[in-house]
Design a protein that fits this description.
Pathway: Purine metabolism; IMP biosynthesis via de novo pathway; N(2)-formyl-N(1)-(5-phospho-D-ribosyl)glycinamide from N(1)-(5-phospho-D-ribosyl)glycinamide (10-formyl THF route): step 1/1
Catalytic activity: N(1)-(5-phospho-beta-D-ribosyl)glycinamide + (6R)-10-formyltetrahydrofolate = N(2)-formyl-N(1)-(5-phospho-beta-D-ribosyl)glycinamide + (6S)-5,6,7,8-tetrahydrofolate + H(+)
InterPro entries: Formyl_transf_N (IPR002376), Formyl_transf_N_sf (IPR036477), GART (IPR004607), GART_AS (IPR001555)
GO cellular component, one term: cytosol
Distance between the termini: 6 Å
Number of domains: 1
Structural class: alpha/beta
GO biological process, one term: 'de novo' IMP biosynthetic process
CATH class: Alpha Beta
Number of strands: 7
Shape: globular
CATH architecture: 3-Layer(aba) Sandwich
Order of helices and strands: EHEHEHEHEHEEH
CATH superfamily: Formyl transferase, N-terminal domain
Length: 192
């Protein structure tokens, strides 16, 4: 997207923002391909927002309750554009984006999903992998399209499912890989 200037990334979160923190850490390394211009959330009380503020990163928070999806997405869209955002990274953002929003940012939204896509789109991915008797689980970074967890897969990381694993134990091991994979794939994505 740009060889000289770091690409401006907006990160959307809904919770503690651990993946957001790993993206921010990578953005602060020498020669980083992107900078975090805004962290936005649908939950004003999200712990990740407080962390981002402490780090001196611009934040935006708005609950969609009572205003409806179109007005909510219009406000998020405007905040991203006002911050000069070029690429959106979803990091534990627990809302489905409308087709209109995705179309406005076509090919410029990425997401991290806790499964080896195309397996286990949606929620409860770790429990579903264990219940299926899979030998491995993992995470995927993909381009966001109108279809849930369906865009081009940009990178994946695998972890073994161990005897006696429950969804919580497996999620913790997958999260370690998410924190490693997402900054690496986002860097590659903004450079292409």
């Amino acid at each position: 997207m740009s060889a000289d200037q770091p690409v401006k990334v907006g990160i959307l979160i809904s919770g503690r923002g651990s993946n957001m923190q790993s993206l921010v850490a990578a953005s602060r390394e020498a020669g980083a391909a992107y900078q975090v211009a805004l962290v936005a959330s649908d939950k004003p009380e999200a712990a990740g927002l407080a962390w981002a503020k402490e780090q001196g990163i611009a934040t935006f928070a708005l609950s969609p309750k009572g205003i409806g999806k179109p007005a909510y997405e219009a406000a998020i869209d405007q905040a991203l554009r006002d911050a000069g955002v070029q690429v959106i990274a979803l990091a534990g953002y627990m809302r489905l984006l409308s087709g209109d929003f995705v179309a406005r940012w076509q090919g410029r939204i990425v997401n991290i999903h806790p499964s080896l896509l195309p397996l286990y789109k949606g929620l409860d991915t770790h429990a579903r992998a264990i219940a299926a008797g899979d030998a491995t689980a993992g995470c995927s970074v993909h381009v966001v399209t109108e279809e849930l967890d369906d865009g081009e897969v940009l990178g994946q990381a695998e972890v073994p499912i161990l005897p006696g694993d429950d969804a919580t134990a497996l999620a913790a091991r997958v999260l370690v890989e998410e924190h490693r994979l997402y900054p690496q794939v986002l860097t590659e994505f903004v450079r292409r």
